[in-house]
């Protein structure tokens, strides 16, 4: 957006300072805010569910330490293997847009960005995760308005992940 604003300002400055020719046609004035950038891809925007700002609604989930810390061992290893398998499943279904760990400050251990504006749908999807089922973590839900380009993260990630 900032690049677009700067480019528009630069073009306007050049237009205002360019010498006028008597025989030059005068273009009709159009508001810069209503014109789409030259690089705008309407088909891509539609495929990602983007609004006119290139944004869309999601649900942001904060995973926090829950009441049932599982001791180290085979059961905990299996639970976390299931957690990662569940994330991969949700990502494959285009439900999980983005996930990652946090540093643990104030018990915050990870995030999910889910491809829905519906809190109840998000809760149903997160309820399938073994860390939630076992009480290792609890989830907090917040509506989130962000770039529709986030929908491409998993496809791009698959191209850069080595293992």
From TrEMBL:
The keyword Signal applies. Belongs to the YciI family. Residues 60-136 form the YCII-related domain. This is YciI family protein. InterPro entries: Dimeric_a/b-barrel (IPR011008), YCII (IPR005545). Keywords: Signal. Residues 1-22 form the signal peptide. It holds the Pfam family YCII.
């Amino acid at each position: 957006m900032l690049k677009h604003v700067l480019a528009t300002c630069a073009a306007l400055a050049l237009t205002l300072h360019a010498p006028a020719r008597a025989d030059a046609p005068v273009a009709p004035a159009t508001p810069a805010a209503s014109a789409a950038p030259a690089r705008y891809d309407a088909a891509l925007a539609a495929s990602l569910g983007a609004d006119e700002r290139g944004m869309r609604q999601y649900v942001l989930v904060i995973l926090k330490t829950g009441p049932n810390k599982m001791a180290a061992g085979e059961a905990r290893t299996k639970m976390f293997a299931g957690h990662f398998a569940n994330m991969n499943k949700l990502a494959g279904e285009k439900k999980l847009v983005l996930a990652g760990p946090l540093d643990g400050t104030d018990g915050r251990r990870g995030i999910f960005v889910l491809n829905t504006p519906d809190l109840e749908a998000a809760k149903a999807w997160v309820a399938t995760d073994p860390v939630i089922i076992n009480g290792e973590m609890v989830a907090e839900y917040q509506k989130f308005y962000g770039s529709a380009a986030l929908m491409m993260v998993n496809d791009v990630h698959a191209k850069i992940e080595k293992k």
